[in-house]
Amino acid sequence: MKKIVLFVALIGALVSCKKSNSGSSGYHVTASVDGAAKAFNTAPLATKLTNTSTTQITVDGFATGGGESISLIIDNAPSGKPIVAGTYTDTTSDFEVALFYTQNLTAAYAGGTTVAAGLAIQNHVKIVITSIDTTSSIKGSFSGDLFLNGDVTAAKKTFTNGDFYVKFH
């Protein structure tokens, strides 16, 4: 888990240096973090990775300056079921669901199936896909509690009102 968090932090730091943003396209990733509105609208994008039996969809967004980034991940490896419009939570056994937030280069937060496995967590990670066309875009919402370095006994960040509309690359 720590390797994943560090990888996401590194990617966030590298991509946040880009000067492009969502412009007038409407593409965006936004959320409230502990009640404060945040926009991750620099280079918002979605990727779909597929091998013979599994698919992973990732939504990424980066804040302007400061190195903040967010990544939402849905992986169908546990079941092989297709990823379609619907609700995905970290309590399901059919999909791996994860949410990563890099606050800065030294503080990375994680939540999702691996972090929450068998634990009582107040706000489980939930990703709702309202529309998906893997040749063009994905749209939906998200929420949940994330923990510093994926440790549920450490500091927590609560994500609410998460909203995304991003283009597949």
Strands, count: 11
* Low-confidence blocks of residues: 1-23
First-residue to last-residue Cα separation: 25 Å
Q: What percentage of the residues does DSSP assign to strands (E)?
A: over 45%
Q: What is the number of helices?
A: 2
Number of domains: 1
Q: What characterizes the major β-sheet? A: 11 strands, antiparallel
Q: Return the string of H and E elements.
A: HEEEEEEEEHEEE
What is the 3D form? globular
The secondary structure category is mainly beta
Highlighted features:
169 residues; mainly beta; eleven-stranded antiparallel β-sheet; 2 helices; 11% helix; globular; disordered N terminus
What does the model show?
- By secondary structure, this protein is mostly beta strands.
- The protein has one domain.
- 11% of the residues lie in helices and 50% in strands.
- The chain has helices at residues 2-15, 113-116; strands at residues 28-33, 36-39, 42-50, 55-62, 69-75, 86-89, 96-104, 107-112, 126-133, 137-148, 156-167.
- Strands 1, 2, 3, 4, 5, 6, 7, 8, 9, 10 and 11 form an eleven-stranded antiparallel sheet that branches.
- The radius of gyration is 15 Å and the shape is globular.
- The protein starts with a helix and ends with a strand.
- The model is unreliable at 1-23 (pLDDT under 50).
